[in-house]
Amino acid sequence: MSKQVQPIYILPENSQRTTGKTAQQNNIMAAKLVGEIVRTTLGPKGMDKMIVDSMGEVTITNDGVTILEEMQIEHPAAKMIVEVAKTQEEEVGDGTTTAVILAGELLKQAESLLEKEIHPTVIVRGYRQAATKAIEILNKIAQPITKNDTETLIKIAQTAITGKGAESSKEKLSTIAVNAVRRVIKETTKGMQYEKELIKIEKSIGGSVEDTELIEGVILDKEPVHPGMPETVENARIALLDTALEIKNTEIDAKISITDPSQMQAFIDQEETMLRNMVNRVLETGANVVFTQKGIDDIAQHFFAKHGVYAARRLKKSDMEAISKATGANIVTSIQDLTSKDLGIAGRVRKQAIGDQVMTYVEECKNPQSVTILVHGGTEHIVDEVKRSITDALGDVAASLKSGKVVAGAGAPEVELSKQIRLYSETLSGREQLAVRAFAEAMEVIPRTLAENAGLDPIDVLAELKASHDQGRTWAGIDVFTGQVVDAWRAGVIEPLKIKTQAISSASEVAQMILRIDDVIAGGPTTQNTGTPQMPNMDGM
Questions:
Q1: What is the pTM of this model?
Q2: Looking at the annotation, which residues are catalytic?
Q3: What topology does CATH give the domain 146-216+370-403?
Q4: In angstroms, rounded to a whole number, what is the distance separating the alpha carbons of residues 372 and 180?
Q5: Would the pLDDT of 531 be above 80?
């Protein structure tokens, strides 16, 4: 009689475990679905998505990372693809859709190799080799660019804006983006240094997109603290204080005993004298504009107004730093230490109402290291989309200058990569050759998607593009408006090299990571009263 074996449980009750091919198929399917979601937004003829959150807030955009973040995707493998978009956004600021589509296509190509019984590690090794080769090829075909090449920089910004909600005003917006980046980017011994925080983007609902302006300085969402203060100060000399213009309270509980009314008056007079001395100390330096991170006492406000000084209080630290960079002012923590050398210079400081909000403009700064773009638009949704378009344009211009290299767009580099990686695969032996060839085919997803989104026949377009590249036309790309193959460089479709290299490295890395997973263990649903979040369903999106 056979002995009955007792089953051994090593996982908690209700745990889900998916292994082998099923796990791989589930993960690949989820990742491919993410790519399919954003695919229709690619290119100048890409469509927009409307996302409505649980609170009823509406977002209309074709920006890849915005779509994926707003969707609140749950599937773990799909979340990994969303991370690709976030990385692309942080590193470059544009090309998020390209990166996500590439990741989805690499996994789609890997799926057919897995069906041919090719081991995942072989595919991973082939993908790694192909990605290294792709970045090497891109660096070889990229063209140099400098800070003074205004025409090319404007084309880069226009390429970023084309196909987004702000396309109708792309000439104006691209010029603003180029000027803003050139203002704040610095040449150092380590190359170009760019901090995107130095370009503030403020929104104003009202007017048209064409009214969007570049302020050579800073806009603050503050107004003067006293109605008697001037609305405009020309030739502003600005004091930045990180201290309160108020009488400090004692650190410990203290009582002041007053026995007759004259003492009361003396106490009030003394407080007023102290505040007057503070104000006089600031005025002695020659300041006619005062900004502080802390408060300003009512009496101090009155004295400042009397002397025609423009003052605002409780500014954000980031705003103080932006004014410091724009005007050359030093942020001072003690009024006693304030000198005329600490003051910043601006052509004008003025109060202006924008819609129902009063703002302070610090403008006409001589050599500002910090600038502000004020975006106008008819509705909130338009303003938001224009802001996203400008952010992409700023990222592209900055990325081009930082790397000093650019490539043409319109699907040209992807077709060239596909051609050269296919040739490279023929130099390899073993099964990795198939994975490298699959990588080459995955590159074609970008021109194919551009053609599909423009309502063109992708097979015809790809055949024509490949023929042009075989004839040695490196920058042959697709003109989605005419359906013709054109020289993308001459057509002014130019993108930073960093967009392509970052998209390829991120997409191939995440594809490799997903392919290496052969076992998915998901914790079982917990009881509702514990407050622990439930693990998402692993079967799909």
A1: 0.70
A2: 63, 96-97, 392
A3: GROEL; domain 2 (3.30.260)
A4: 8
A5: no
